[in-house]
Amino acid sequence: MKRDYSVSTTAAKVHKKKLFLRIAKIVFLLLLLLVSSIYFILYVIYNESSFTISVDRDMLKSSIFLSEDGSTNTKSRNLYADASEYMDNISVKWISEDVDTEADGPHNGPNYFAYSFYLVHKGKNTINYWYEIDVDDSIRNLDKAIRVMIYHNGEKTIYAKANEKTGEAEEGTTKFFSDDIAVLEERKDFSPGDKDRFTIVVWIEGDDPDCNNDLLGGGIKMHMDITEERLIRD
Q: Where are the domains of the chain?
């Protein structure tokens, strides 16, 4: 009697097809989970969080704390400033000349972020401290054209990433400390009773040679830390 191999061949094909569909479904679900995770992380970073300013715990224990309005009634370890959801490129000339003194707390302007706050010393010992602004992430290399302007007790400094071609500081700016650290500065002899005022201003500089259409759709996330001792980095 002749065996019918067509039946077994058809069954094998059906089995392979089912197996392929099962594997394809698992791969699709894994990719969907990966994309969802990435989207969630980016959503948290760029939509829910703010520009954060923090002091280390030891400073807070020593009665050195942050205050949005200079008040000594509350001791804050962290301050949160809402960043602008959308910024077009502008010139530094478009920023209010009295941006440092016009208000405490948030005072964003057209296409720029601005926030003023105080570091208050109600402790007993004179210290040195470091203030640092880190670039946590930069989408589409937007940090190439970003400017970070800091008023520290009325003294203004503008920071920018070095020119991509020359490696030198852009005109009128101080170079970023490194690729992921925009600002790292020391404040010496911070004494009991002192109250340091900061104003942070961030914008996209339209006159920067690296400001071009390649940056469209970009984004940036930064935060600021204040520590009694400089962090040791590898």
A: 1-48, 50-227
